[in-house]
Amino acid sequence: MKNVILLAVLFLTITSGKAQNADKAKALLDEVYNKVMSYENIEVNFKYSLQNEEAGINQETRGDVTLEGDKYLFDYMGSQQLYDGKKVYTIVPENEEVTIEDKSTDSNTIT
Predict the structure, then answer these.
(1) FRET label pair with 95: which of 7, 10, 32, 72, CA 20 to 30 Å apart?
(2) How does pLDDT run across 39-82, given as a tens digit for each residue?
């Protein structure tokens, strides 16, 4: 009987501990969300790393994206993608090429 009571108390302690962490996590996420939404724009720099030991590939590429509401400028691997709220412009300077598309849900755009 003591073991059953001990297990019940242990189970309730663990369960209540997880619930408190969930509330703390939600509060932290809400705080971060409100802070990010207060910014006029956001710039994110990132690094993409591809490692394949079997094929002997170890490649690292850097990029950045600037966001302002739904509008963005994305720069990656020498090409840029710009969304002005209506159209998506893909610019590849190396090929001297610009592609202009209407935004669609099927398009490869940043959301």
Answers:
(1) 72
(2) 898 898 999 898 998 988 888 989 999 999 889 999 988 899 99
What pLDDT band is residue 37 in, cutting at 50, 70 and 90? confident
Degrees to nearest 5, angle at CA 40 with 46 and 109: 50
Q: Which two tokens stand for residue 89?
A: 């412009």
pTM: 0.61
Q: How many other CB atoms are there within 10 angstroms of residue 76's CB atom?
A: 14
Same domain, yes or no: 29 and 51: no
Do the domain assignments include residue 111?
Answer: no
Cα separation, 111 vs 96, in Å, equals 27
Q: In sequence order, what are the residues at sequence separation of 6 or more whose Cβ sits closer than 8 angstroms to the Cβ of residue 75?
A: 63, 64, 65
Q: What is the dihedral of CA 41, 85, 109, 27, to 10 degrees?
A: 40
Tell me the torsion sign for CA atoms 103, 65, 47, 37.
Answer: negative
Q: Which domain holds residue 16?
A: 1-38
